[in-house]
Amino acid sequence: MKQKLILVFIAIIIGSINIDVIAQELNIIDDKSETILRSTSNEDKSDLFNKGYKLHLGLGYGASTTGAINEEFIKFDFINSYQFNNNASLGFGVGLRHFIDKKNNYSKVFPIFLDLTTNTSNRFPIYLSAQFGFIAETDCVLEYPGIYLKIGIGTYFRLSDKLALKVGVSYDHMTIYSSYWSSCGFGYNDLIFGHEEVNAISFNIGISFN
């Protein structure tokens, strides 16, 4: 009888040891799984942009939405901004709008503006941007400034840790003041002054360095 009890006791001890070993192995597996999940989560939540200075260079093509005026232009933007976190940046920019239609009284205008950009996380990197400032033609940049407004939406594609490709569309509004000399006959010329409202849809592409 004593031998049977001893054998049962030994079997219980061996069984408990095996259970402890299995439990430890399961805990190791759980720890590894949590580590993998955390690393994956951290990769998903990694910042698209680092906090600090950001430079954006952009190109685009715009076409007027007003039927009475056929305006097409090529655009270039140079924006210096500060990235506050992964979701917001504020900056100052200058640009060039080169109009293709040679019949206009102006061919090139310069916008000077503030730029506010917000964007979502890496999984669905959608951005919203707003620019507000003034715009003027080359002959009277400071004399007759007009209103410049741009609202855009698009997406980013990360190319490296510090480089991203930006693609999107925008609505552009420009109030352009211009002046030109018009012949009145009899050897006289008259200075004509006026303004033009340009509302356009633009397709934009750019590179952001951070």
Defining traits:
210 residues, alpha+beta, Porin, 8-stranded antiparallel β-barrel, 1 helix, 8 strands, 59% strand, elongated
Brief rundown of the structure:
With 210 residues, the protein is of the alpha+beta class. The chain has one helix at residues 2-45; strands at 52-64, 72-85, 88-99, 108-119, 126-137, 146-160, 163-185, 188-209.
pLDDT averaged over residues:
75
* Count of helical regions: 1
**Main sheet attributes: strand count, strand direction, barrel closure:** 8 strands, antiparallel, barrel
CATH topology of the largest domain: Porin
**Unreliable stretches covering 5 or more consecutive residues:** 39-45
CATH hierarchy, class of the largest domain: Mainly Beta
Order of helices and strands: HEEEEEEEE
Terminal CA distance reads 80 Å
CATH architecture of the largest domain, please?
A: Beta Barrel
Helix content percent band: 10-25%
Assign the structural class, choosing from mainly alpha, mainly beta, alpha/beta, alpha+beta, or little secondary structure.
Answer: alpha+beta
Q: Shape from CA axes?
A: elongated
